Amino acid sequence: MTASPAIPTPPADHGVAATRWVATGSLLALIVLCLAWELVLAPVRPGGTWLAIKALPLCIPLAGILKNRMYTYRWVSLVIWLYFTEGVVRGWSDKPPSQWLAWAEVALCLVLFTACTLHVRLRQRNARAAETAGAAGASD
Q1: 40 contacts 48 by C-beta, under 8 angstroms
Q2: How many C-beta neighbours within 10 Å does residue 134 have?
């Protein structure tokens, strides 16, 4: 019985892990910001409003991000533009402190978008590198 040649695996990419943590952190921060904004910090009406429900759609991709599902990173990078748009509109039209919270939402959206797109790009690059290394190892 002959031993099959070992297929070299690419070294662990710290960029993938970093973008995963940044995406998770910014998504959680955005959920907390949306809830705090509409319930405590600067609600439209005293005592909080139903606008806090806007945090609910952000909870849906949280499980996929925590499970590191590539598809979730892809669609979150598209859906996040709705929150970005809300932040820009309220950043220009609201009065402080709501205005400041809106600009914080915009910043978190940009961080989340960047982390998601970089994460997908790095994982695809690593998959291609592993495939190339596997093909080179098989031809030896």
Answers
A1: yes
A2: 13
pLDDT tens, position by position, 49-85: 888 999 999 999 999 999 999 999 999 999 999 999 9
Contact 103, 92 (CB under 8 A): no
Specify whether the CB–CB gap between 114 and 42 falls below 8 A.
no
Contact assessment for residue 105 and residue 83, using Cβ atoms and an 8 Å cutoff: yes
Q: Which residue has the tokens 């961080």?
A: 111
Entry pTM: 0.85
Give me the sign of the Cα torsion angle 114, 58, 21, 86: positive
Are 13 and 118 spatial neighbours (Cβ–Cβ below 8 Å)?
Answer: no
**Helix, strand, or coil here: 97?**
coil
CA proximity to 62, closest of 19, 86, 31, 101: 31
